[in-house]
Amino acid sequence: EIKEIKRIPSENGLTIQIKPSVGDVVEITLDKHNRIISYKNSNVQSIGDNFLEDNTSLTNIELPNVKSIGDCFMFSNNKLEQIKLLNIQSIGNGFLHENQILKKIELPNVKSIGEYFLYNNTSLTNIELPNVKSIGNNFLEDNTSLTNIELPNVQSIGGWFLLSNKKLTQIELPNVKSIGEYFLYNNNSLTNIALPNVQSIGIAFLYNNNSLKSITLPNVQSIGSWFLFYNNKLTQMELPNVQSIGDNCLNKNNSLKCVAFPNVQFIGKYFLYMNKYIKKDDFVKNNKNNYEKNL
Questions:
Q1: pLDDT for residue 74
Q2: What is the pLDDT of residue 86?
């Protein structure tokens, strides 16, 4: 229930203050063209779908107590440079989708993130999500400036994670257990990656990565097709617990010289195809007892 509304004009526009019967004042600031440029609301805890969608003028937003956000939050906003949501725990699909100038974001307590999170953001260089546990598809896809990411507690990652990221050189995901398709697809700068607890990997994992030199996957058990297709720097690969590998594994890898998969039981077609130093026949010969019948 609204108790009072105040209109405070200025040279650049208008500020509207809404006083509810219970809670703090909600403040909305408009520019001279009646476009929302600032929104402050400490009372709201949950936000539905399409909040401030297609708002091209907002430069400031304050929602200190919001805990959940629906789909398409501030979809296609091109003026917001920073956002702080300290108590948010769950985020729906399309969060800040097509926001190209966002440079700073703080989400310290978020635990689950939907699809298309910060899709096509070209300015963010750093992101830390210390408590997130699950991430949907297309997370930070087409982010061309990101150089650092921290996801220490994430356990599951959807498809197209960080697709076409051009600057990230290393990433650590110590607790992730499952990864969807096209993970870090078309990433040309990543040199190191450690995934100590991942157990399953979808198709096209690190497809077309031309800089990777080190990868750690000690507990992975199943891998989809197109695994590390077209990688030119990796010289050795050890997967001690992998049991199943899809088609085109390590296809067109021109630097690989050593491969060890001691527990693999099935490998798909075109394994080590067009590899300069190590061939499929050599691999079969050296591991004849385990799975020759499956190759």
A1: 95
A2: 97
- What is the per-residue pLDDT for 287? 67
Q: Are 9 and 29 in contact (CB under 8 A)?
A: no
pLDDT for 188:
86
The answer to whether 243 touches 268, Cβ cutoff 8 Å, is: no
In the 8-state DSSP scheme, what is residue 25? Answer: P
Task: Identify the segments of the chain with pLDDT beneath 70.
Answer: 286-295
CB 228 within 8 A of CB 234: yes
Instruction: Please say whether the beta carbons of 158 and 115 come within 8 A.
Output: yes
Contact 217, 240 (CB under 8 A): no
CA distance 92 to 141: 16
Amino acid (one-letter) located at 154: V
Instruction: Quote the CA–CA distance of 47 and 18 in Å, as a whole number.
Output: 18
Query: Which tokens is 292 given?
Result: 């020759």
Burial pattern 194-206, b for ≥16 Cβ within 10 A else e, equals: bbebbbebbbbbb
Enclosing H/E stretch for 286: helix 280-286
**What one-character DSSP code corresponds to residue 292?**
G
Please choose, from the candidates 92, 137, 138, 101, the residue with its C-alpha nearest in 3D space to the C-alpha of residue 119. Answer: 138
The model's pLDDT over 75-124, given as tens digits with 9 standing for 90+, comes to 998 899 999 999 999 999 999 999 889 999 999 999 999 999 999 998 99
- Parallel, antiparallel or unpaired: strands 82-84 and 134-135: unpaired
Burial label, 242 (beta-carbon count in 10 A; 0-12, 13-18, 19+):
buried
d(CA 204, CA 226): 5
Q: Can you give the pTM of this predicted structure?
A: 0.91
* Tokens found for residue 192: 């190191």
CA distance 28 to 15: 6
